[in-house]
Sequence to fold (400 residues):
Amino acid sequence: MFSKRNKNGFYGEFGGSFIPEMLRDNINELEEKYNIYQKDIEFQKIYRKILKNYVGRPTPLFFCKTYSKRYNAKIYLKREDLNHTGSHKINNAIGQSLLAKKLGKKKIIAETGAGQHGIAVATTCSLMNLECMIFMGEIDMHRQYSNVLIMKSLGAKVIPVYSGSKTLKDAVNESIRYWINNPESYYLIGSTVGPHPYPMIVSDLQSIISEEIKIQLKKKGIIYPNYIISCIGGGSNAAGSFYHYLDNKKVKLLAVEAAGLGIHTKKTAATIFCGSKGILHGSMTFVLQNQDGQVLPTYSISPGLDYPGIGPMHADLFMKKRVKFLHSTDNEALQAGFELMKLEGIIPALESAHALSALKKIFFKKNEIVIITLSGRGDKDINVYNQFMNKNFLNHEPIT
Ligand SMILES: *Cc1c(COP(=O)(O)O)cnc(C)c1O
Fold:
C-alpha cells in the first residue's frame, strides 16, 4: 500500500515522534492502548453508534446537477458539512474522546485554528463528561469569534494564546507546553499531524469518509471514482477521503493547499509548494521555514488551512507522486464558494471552498466521476464572504 507507515510511525522518510522525554510515557501508553482498542469490537461498535445517532452519519454523497453541467463531469459532494457541529472534525473528536475515557483521563486539552476542532472537542467532552480546555491563537479568536462563544457555551475553557503569530501553530505549541506540565491530561490533536501515533489515529478515525464514499458509489453502480479532491491543512479530511483508495492508482487524488495571496508572496500557507523538510510539532515533514529552520508566519483567509506544516503521510504521498497537489488563492476560494452558493444552494466553509476551486484548474473528460469533500459548512465564514461581496460590488466586478 502507498504510504504504509512502519512501526515507529514513519511514512517513508516522514513522521516519527520527536518529542521531549517527559512525554515519552504518555505517547507510548497512547499507542499501546490505541492498538488494542482499534481492534476491539466493542469499542468500534460504540464509536460507530455515536457516529450514526449523534453525528448523523453516513453523510450524503450529493450529485450536483448544475455543477456537473458547467464542468462537464459527474460531480458529487461528500457532505461532511452536514455532520453535527458542521465539519469532519467530529469524527476524530469522538474516537479520541472515547479513547481518552479508556485511558482513564478526566481532562482533555486541544488546540484550534478555525474553531471547528475546538467545537468538536467541546461537544464530545460535554457528551462524555470530560473537562475541556481549548488553546486558541488570539488572532483566530477574533476571526472566528462566534466559534469561541459556542465552545464557551458548551462548557469549555478557551485559553487565548498571545505568543508568536497568535494563530494555530502557536496554539499547538502552547498545548504541548501545557501537556508537558500536566501529563495526566489527554491531548486531543485535531489533524493528521504531531508525533506518532497521532497521524495514524486521526487518519484511521477519518477513514470513515472514504469507507462511506465506496459504499455510496457502489449503490450507484460505480466501482471507483476518477477523482477525489480535498482541501488540505494538516491533512485529516484529505486522509479520510483518500484512505480506502490509496491502493487504486486509477483514482486520481488531489489535495488543494491554501496559497493565501499567492505562492510567490510571503503571505501563503502552501506548505508543499513553499516549504522544505523539517521537524514541526514532533514530526518530520514539510515545513514553511527560513534557511535557519525558523518556522515562518503563514497566511490564508481560511483559518483551518493557516498552518505551516502538513501531515507526514501527505508529505510521503507527495514525494511518491500518489497525491497531486494544487494551490488556490483567497480570491479563487472565495469565488468558488460563491459559485457553490449560487448553483447548488450550499454555503461551504472557506477551507472547503479551496477544494471546490480545483474544478477550474482541471480539464475533465466527459462523464468522469469527481468526488469533492465538502469538509465543513460556511456559517462561520459568513462575515468574510460578505466583505468580499461588498468589495466586488463596489468594483463592479462579477462574482463568478
Ligand atoms: C480544520 C478544517 C480543515 C483543515 O484540516 P484538515 O486536517 O486538513 O482536514 C478543512 N476544512 C474544515 C471545515 C476544517 O474545519
Observations:
- The chain has two domains: 24-51+89-202, 58-86+207-390.
- Residues 87, 89, 114, 116-117, 191, 231-238, 304-305, 349, 351-352, 375-376 surround pyridoxal-5'-phosphate (CB under 6 Å).
- The mean pLDDT is 95.
- The first strand starts at residue 10 and ends at 11.
